[in-house]
Amino acid sequence: MAQQHRDSEGKSLLVLGIIWLLGAISDRLWFALDRSVPAWDQAEYLTSTLNYLQALQHPQWFSGEWWTNFWLLSTKIPPLAYILTVPFLQVFGTGGDRATLVHLLFSAILLASVYSLGVQLFNRQVGLWAAAICVLLPGLYRFRLQFLLDYPLTAAITLAFYCLTMWKASEGRSSATDSVTDVTDVTDRTQLKERTNKKYKFFPSSSSSLSPSPTLPLSPSSFFWAIAFGISLGLSILVKHTTVLFLFTPIVWLAVGAVRQKAWGRLGQLTGALLLSVAVFGPWAKTNWLLILTGGKRATLDSAIAEGDPALNTIDAWIYYGQHLPEQISWPLLLIPLVGLILYWRRRQDSSSILHLNSCRWLAVFWGGAYLINSLNINKDDRYVIPYLPVLSIFLAYCLTLWPSRWGRQIHWGTIGLAILAMLFHMWPLGGAFGHSLVQIISPGNSNYPYLGKEWPHREVIAEIIDREPYLQSTLGVLPSTPEINQHNLNFYGALANFQVYGRQVGTNLKEVPQDVRSLSWFVTKTGPQGSIREKIKQAQNAAVTAIEKGDKFDLDKTWILPDYTNLNLYRKRVQPVEIQPLNEGRSQVQLDRVTVGGKAVPGVALPVTYTWSGPWQQLQSGLVLVTWQNQQSGDIPPGQTFRILHDRAIAQATLHPGMLEADKFAVGFRVVDRTAMLPPANIAPGTYNLQATYLNRKTGETYPINVPAVSVKIEAQPLDMRSQAEPGNEDKAPGNENNTDKPELDLVTQLRAMAVNLPKGLPGLEPVFEQIGRINQYDPIQDYTVQAEQALEYRLKQEPNNLELAYALAFSRVLQQNVKSAIAALEKVTQLDSKNPYAYAYLAFVHLYGWHPKAAQTALKPAIALNSNLPEIRILNGVAQLMQGNLIQAWQDLQYLKKLKI
Can you give the pLDDT at residue 902? Predict the structure, then answer.
């Protein structure tokens, strides 16, 4: 008997492997012929895999800082799917199709989990049919053919649900019940009923019995499955945090059952499993929790409004996913099994456990809970609920086996045959328009054909930019946003080219269009439909297109005719902000060969300046220049006025990139022309300012003075009130600058320091900061300007340890990097220098809360409360600190100040 059982199990596993293999062959053939480009989300996820591939080239497993930076690579979306893709990229190379090879792994996990659930809840026959149905469900294979997180999430959730089911079943089972009963192997109904009752006694017939008797001891297998569930749940959340929407109901169901049965040991196991899952996903969530929360609104409410999803107070919101079931399952796989269930129900003798009512109830708990909770989500899309389809496939497979035996075999294979035909017609353009119309009858929904036409020119666009600027990293401003031409897929192809080109969407805010045009050197525009450009930003996009195509600052570099017979235009700025060329001779150190200051120096208004540097490649690429324009009569400056202009930043704005060039190409020296602008402070004293410069190596910390040419800047006394113009982004308000696009934009380090001046004002000072920071982050896709600022400010503060303005700027640069430890150190310095300002302590407390240090945050807030106990910001932060420590009463009292907060 045991040998027969092993043989039957071996045959079942062989069939399961064949099902996986056939699905894999079908998918890989589709990918081999498809020539499409990834759309928005797909391209963004593919770029993330390349980020993790790069990070894992030189891992530092025992470095806490490395792990923090590792988790920060994906701040809003859990990274496990990206990380699991990396080995496939390492073995097979980079590229969109190669990245989808990871779906072979997820398919294996999904099919094994579905089969095992079918065996556990029913029998091997149900498990195999369920696995076959999973391969053929339109709702699954449509997303199996795209690099999205929904299919990996489906596999991860199904695995976690299987582990939870096994834990549920692990008590009260004897070894004699481990054998699997197959309906087709038993002909005697009474014998089948007895064996079924014996096998499923952990699913009692009584509806009040939700868990094993509390008197039973905890078995070793229950500990194993509790641990397995905790790990699988944590890993599933690391794929996508919407895992909780699907597993919340079965977890609560079992917890309530354990409480009702007073099975405290079982409840302890379940609690331990949940804590174990937190240990798995906790490091990533702890590092990024604030961005996860703040990004939730954009991902749900904003998207729902933009897409016109039904409101929750309408019936459409609650039947949305039910109406889409035929598209996700197909009519044959939905109706034929349900007819089998109806026929079986009509001819049943009684409602005993031969119908596996408790197994069906357990599946219903999962599916019903997932349906209702996802219906509560105002942002709706078919792909958000595909993780419940495998559980539905198990139920449909069970119903399919209920057909009478005289028709059963024909019905089984006929149903699968129809599903296979529907899949082929949806995946391949068979039969033309007639074939498409025919398949819509039995399987409604969108088809997913491979694109077989002319290739899209993304690689050529990136190659053109690199060819024109082989030594530079470039940011490409992308104005259209269609599935084929958008910032995400151009960014992905730029990442494939050694991260030398980044694509970013700009021209979305009318007020920021002048800064966008000044800040970027490359743009792409497109004729014809512009894609998913929301109504409120169309005016901004039109203004940006007009400034680029009809202005005199950009030249048309190249045009491509797209497969949709529209044109893609690549524009390049006529006067480049950075130019680099190799020299005939080498250099030993960085030199400043020439400085040109353009225009009249006005306090609080950007002043164009061009620096010409030369030196060896490594020092230029790794170099910060600490530039000071110093007043010659600094000793006679009246109080309240500034006697210098700081212009610290990286050479060439940190855009030097080795590209694909060979090492011997960098043996010579290079000359860099760096066109930028500096910002004379609004309170700068009149006089003549001379130049001083120091070189700082970002990697080694080495410094040396730089010989500078004879050059000076003269500041005239200005009677105008220039205070508002000291803020970055307001330079166009200066007299005569209203329509000025000639002058270069301030470098980003200067903009950061200018924003930091507002920090002592608290929330009113933060508003302009929040308005600007997202914009300038588009111009520097890797936010290296924050690191440049930090390194330069650290050096400055060593020379001037009591400079409050520099201390605030340093803290700001570290906060933007989400570097908790170093930000706390910088803010502690700020509180020492600005001890009478309650907002200084508020910033320190906020960073402590971000780093999950509520006690330290509470301690930091005590001086602020003593200074001004009625500031809403202070009391709210104190309330959060109290809440995180479990002091609910004090937290409630402090959080009442939310009503007084004005944002």
Answer: 72
* Residues near 388 by beta carbon (within 8 Å), at least 6 away in sequence: 246, 366, 367, 370, 371
Q: Show Cβ contacts of residue 872 under 8 Å, excluding neighbours closer than 6 positions.
A: 897, 898, 900, 901, 902
pTM to 2 decimal places: 0.90
Q: What is the pLDDT of residues 747-757, one digit of tens each?
A: 999 999 999 99
pLDDT at 214 over 80: no
Please state the length of the chain.
903
Question: Is 478 within 8 Å of 503 (Cβ atoms)?
Answer: yes
Instruction: Output the six-digit token pair for 580.
Output: 């680099």
In whole angstroms, give the CA distance from residue 684 to residue 648.
17
Out of 161-175, 429-443, 882-896, pick the least confident: 161-175
Contact 526, 568 (CB under 8 A): yes
> Could you tell me if 525 and 479 are in contact, meaning their C-beta atoms sit under 8 angstroms apart?
yes
Integer Cα distance of 413 and 409 in angstroms: 6
φ, ψ at 839 (rounded to 5°)? -70, -30
Q: Tell me the C-alpha distance between 137 and 393, whole Å.
A: 8
Write the pLDDT tens digit of every residue in 24-39: 999 999 999 999 999 9
Distance from C-alpha of 545 to C-alpha of 46, rounded to nearest angstrom:
28
Q: Two tokens at 866? A: 């003593």
Q: Between β-strands 501-505 and 578-582, what pairing exists: parallel, antiparallel or unpaired?
A: unpaired
Can you tell me which residue has the tokens 């005590």? Answer: 862
Which pLDDT value is given to residue 2? 59
User: Does residue 645 contact residue 628 with C-beta atoms inside 8 Å?
Assistant: yes
| DSSP, residue by residue, 868-884 | -TT-HHHHHHHHHHHHH
Alpha-carbon gap, residue 653 to 502, rounded angstroms: 15
SS3 338: helix
> What does the alpha-carbon distance between residue 802 and residue 306 come to, in Å, rounded to a whole number?
50
Residue 835 and residue 840: Cα distance in Å, rounded?
A: 7
CB-CB contact of 678 with 629 (8 Å) = yes
Average pLDDT, whole number, for the chain?
Answer: 88
| Geometric angle at alpha carbon 365, from 362 and 366, rounded to 5° | 95
Beta strands 687-697; 712-715: pairing state = antiparallel
The pLDDT score that the predictor gives to residue 119 is: 96
pLDDT above 50 (res 271): yes
Cα–Cα dist 438/138, whole Å: 16
CA distance 312 to 537: 27
E strand or H helix that includes residue 645: strand 644-646
- Residue 629 backbone dihedrals phi, psi, to 5 degrees: -100, 110
Q: What is the model's pLDDT at position 185?
A: 35
* Residue 545 pLDDT class (50, 70, 90 cuts): very high
> Of 164, 154, 119, which Cα lies nearest the Cα of 134?
154
Alpha carbon distance 903, 893 (integer Å)? 20
Residue 187 in this model has a pLDDT that exceeds 60: no
